[in-house]
Amino acid sequence: MKRSMITTCIFTLLLTFSSCKEASRFENSSVISRDDFSKIRELTGIDVQFEDEVLRPTGLRVFEDLLFTINTREKQMIHIYDLKSKQKIGERISMGQGPTEMVDPSIVKIDDVSIHLYDMVTSKLLEFSTKDFIENSNPQPLRTVKIEKPTAGDVYRIGDQWVGAGFNPSSQFVLFDANGRATQEVGAYPVSDIAFSDQEKIEAYRFSFTTNAKDKILVCYNWTDLIDVLDKDGKLEKRMHGPSHFISEFKERNEGGMRGASPVKDKTRDAFYSPISVGDDFFVLYNGRAEHEEGYSILANEVFTFDKDGNPKDIYTLDQGVFAIAVDSKNKTLYGICNTPEFHIVAYEYK
After folding, report:
1. Rounded distance, CA 95 to CA 155, Å?
2. What are φ and ψ of residue 20, in 5° steps?
3. Tens digit of each residue's pLDDT (9 = 90 or more) over 240-278
4. Is residue 16 assigned to a domain?
5. How many domains does the chain have?
6. Does a structural domain hold residue 6?
């Protein structure tokens, strides 16, 4: 009888522990930990030395054997480097608001045929021939598309549409047709055990995202370690909370008639940023640190990888922190931007 009671107590404790472990602070969400990933690998970076300095890039992209960097403080803002010869091929896209100029360009799509640049400041999408863009110092766009509504960041291809983050507290995204016309607002913000006002919700659940250009949208939250996978219509397929299971807190403020929300002291920390699509997988940087903690840095030392359905795959631990990444899937090399002690490009082989 005593043995039976002990066995029952142990089973109850195990069941309780299991239930607690599986509980999430978010609706329609599961929790993940580092144990859910296939492996954790430590990577040692090599500084990439080009013949010309890389200046102060804010973003980067890899295509074939070329590295593209974004330098918004320069007269021409996209710089192209040959990763084999380490020579600089040239600079493209002048600062301005003319037909072929931009203010804050990003490379949102590139393949053998075309390269698409988006400027969130002017809501302008330019399409170039990839060959012409690389070889011609003054490439001319094949097509210009005016995105109908302002976006809070870049737009990315999803099927035959474009998708961009909106400013609506009721929905996260706006879908645009091939001509830039807004067709639908989609995507619901997470619901957690913290009640946020609309202004607080927009800040607390601020996010970066990318797509696989076909049928998946990966939403990576900047202030809480939450990741969503949406289908091409913006419907939630999977929501994962982890590995640290925190939610940053924000408080609404009203200053001179301007409403917004500010972080609550010692109750915010950095989570995910710089997500990218790599073949059938997604890569994203993870930080997990708070500004009030000793040793805090905006530079992240971990890269989490998932398959297109959001299933955890690998974690790569970097010996040098970076704030933006690009991946050469053919040569299994990850590139990052580090600004310590000065700006430079770091390469990590993950074979």
Report:
1. 20
2. -65, -40
3. 999 999 999 999 988 777 788 999 999 999 999 999 999
4. no
5. 1
6. no
